[in-house]
Design goal:
heterodimer, A: 170 residues, mainly alpha, globular, B: 100 residues
């Protein structure tokens, strides 16, 4: 019963904050609401016994990605944009598309059939510790994708520097 | 025990809100944030599945999604800065140099 209550709190907070994020006029407010949203999602991960994921959600999403967003929003002078019309002309169509997509996915979840269970029960994860389980899988079974992820991040770093730097005039 | 379909419904709702934000907002930065919202919806789904199926693979996938999201944010914001240098606006309707 208490678990359901916690879930309903997190679900209400996440949906409410998501709507707040996409409807704010000022991007700075939007980013700050998103910070609160990410903390709520981290709380949801804790409910699912994924402590490592909750930590990564806060460190990487809230700590790195959102700070980058906030940095860019504050770097650009967006005073004009706040007075301008915030939605495209046909925004009711957007609402219809979103509601239709939600209904479609909801209908699809009714026919969900769970696959075979793995061997990592909660007791086993507690015994090995959650970061330990993730590390073991990451550095054995998923070693190659892990290295590819580092390459993706390297490409992103180089690409961001090349795109954002000022062209030097001869 | 919360049924797994509740998590799927929550994830679908957040994803739909992200789609709504992406197709209706005109501010490039908020469109990017909508994309992050959609990625987070997928992450919620993967972590819930991973927990219910007692398998760690879903959470490994979340790891890679977060890495790609970080890369995407860095590149996307660099593009916005480059765009802003050429035209001081974040409104997509005013950016039509490429004839799109």
């Amino acid at each position: 019963m208490l678990v359901e209550l916690y879930f309903l709190y997190f679900a209400a907070a996440i949906i409410g904050l998501s709507i707040t994020v996409v409807t704010r006029k000022n991007p700075v407010h939007s980013v700050l609401w998103m910070l609160l949203l990410f903390f709520n999602i981290a709380g949801l991960y804790l409910m699912l016994n994924a402590e490592m994921m909750a930590a990564i959600q806060i460190i990487v999403y809230a700590g790195a990605i959102l700070v980058l967003f906030l940095f860019v929003v504050l770097l650009l002078d967006l005073k004009k944009e706040i007075d301008a019309e915030q939605y495209v002309g046909i925004w009711p169509t957007g609402v219809a598309v979103a509601v239709a997509l939600f209904t479609l996915i909801l209908i699809m979840t009714r026919s969900f059939v769970a696959g075979p269970h793995g061997n990592l029960t909660i007791e086993r994860v507690r015994e090995l510790s959650h970061p330990g389980v993730i590390g073991r899988a990451m550095f054995t079974e998923y070693l190659f994708p892990f290295e590819v992820a580092s390459l993706v991040l390297l490409v992103a770093v180089i690409g961001a520097i090349i795109l954002a730097k000022k062209r030097i005039k001869e | 025990m919360v049924p797994v379909t509740w998590y799927m419904a929550l994830s679908a709702a957040v994803f739909a809100i992200g789609v709504f934000g992406f197709v209706t907002r005109r501010n490039v930065i908020i469109m990017f944030m909508s994309v992050e919202l959609m990625l987070n919806a997928v992450n919620i789904n993967l972590v819930a599945m991973s927990h219910y199926l007692e398998d760690i693979r879903g959470q490994i996938m979340v790891f890679f999604i977060i890495a790609v999201a970080a890369a995407e944010a860095a590149i996307g914001l660099a593009i916005i800065i480059a765009l802003f240098r050429n035209r001081p606006t974040a409104h997509i309707d005013e950016i039509k140099e490429m004839g799109g």
